[in-house]
Amino acid sequence: MENILGVLHYPFIVNALLAVFLISIVSGIVGTLVVVRRMVFVTGGITHASFGGIGIAYYLGLPPVGGAMLFAVATALSVEWLGRRGRMRVDSAIAVLWSLGMSVGVLFMFITPGYTPNLLGFMFGDILTVSDLDIAMLAVVAVLLLPCVIVFYRPLMYVSFDQGFARVSGWNVNLINACVSVAAAIAIVMAIKVVGIILLLSLFTLPQAIAGVFCKRLSSMMTVSAVVGFAAGLGGLSAAYAFNLPTGAVIAIGLAIIYLLVRMLNALRMKMNQN
Question: Fewest CB atoms less than 10 Å from the CB: which of 25, 121, 210, 252?
Fold first, then answer.
């Protein structure tokens, strides 16, 4: 017990714990909307395209989070607009923006004079480097997201499951879709430092997939996925600190193992019920 309390005296550990808690709330809400709306591939495209903003920001001497945010939001809105207008197939638009963003990011980091940032930090994350500013930004996103979901829960539910019914009910489906895409882009950028670009999709899909085994209601799925994400993040952080392992990879592996076990147990339960 003394060792645990002693570890909490380190500011970077406290920041890491706060980051896990806040990102579990954000990913629990946004990730659920991503999964039920079948936006996983779109989210992957936004995630990788944001790397272009990171590279340009480093080249210009600007905060990388700001550059990533601009690129992520622009990519989300571009995919939404192209898909709605029918100008290009959504999967083709994602492929173009995905490859373009990654290429631009690598190019600008390569030509940045002086110190070249460690790409592994962006690719796989490093939760122990989360700063006070990162925590403040995560807190702002979580605080803004929660009341928005509570107030607009019904239209979000309609648009997620039946867009035709949502239109008949008088809701602006295009606006809601755009808002969800922007929220996903912001959440993605906030989570990059926790698990990195490569592993980020695990945080926005696996807890939700686990929750989907037990939950049928959108609100329940959001709550359970947030709890699962927090538990996995806490366990992954503890294991990574104890054994000097990369935190993002440990969290992703832990979530994958939990998902496989849950699916196996659920399949076994259904088989026993049939017998």
Answer: 121
Instruction: Return the closest-CA partner of residue 225 out of 149, 152, 151, 166.
Output: 149
* Closest among 82, 38, 72, 34 to 52, alpha carbons compared: 72
DSSP one-letter string for 208-227: HHHHHHH--SHHHHHHHHHH
- Structure tokens, 258: 């939990």
**Comparing C-alpha atoms, which of 14, 27, 4, 7 is closest to residue 190?**
27
The structure tokens listed for 127 are 């939760």
For 151, counting Cβ atoms within 10 Å of its Cβ (0-12 exposed, 13-18 middle, 19+ buried), the class is exposed
Highest mean pLDDT of the ranges 26-35, 86-95, 185-194, 245-254: 26-35
Contact by Cβ (8 Å): 180, 171: no
Q: d(Cα 140, Cα 14) in Å, to the nearest integer?
A: 18
Domain boundaries, the chain: 10-274
Read off the pLDDT of residues 19-40 as tens digits, 9 standing for 90 and up: 989 999 999 999 999 898 888 8
Supply the pLDDT for residue 26: 92
Cβ contact 218:36 at 8 Å: yes
- Tell me the CATH number for domain 10-274: 1.10.3470.10
Question: Which tokens hold the place of 196?
Answer: 């990195």
Alpha-carbon distances of 202 from 11, 35, 69, 91, 195, rounded to whole Å: 27, 11, 20, 20, 9
Sign of CA dihedral 238, 239, 241, 245: negative
State the pTM of this model.
Answer: 0.86
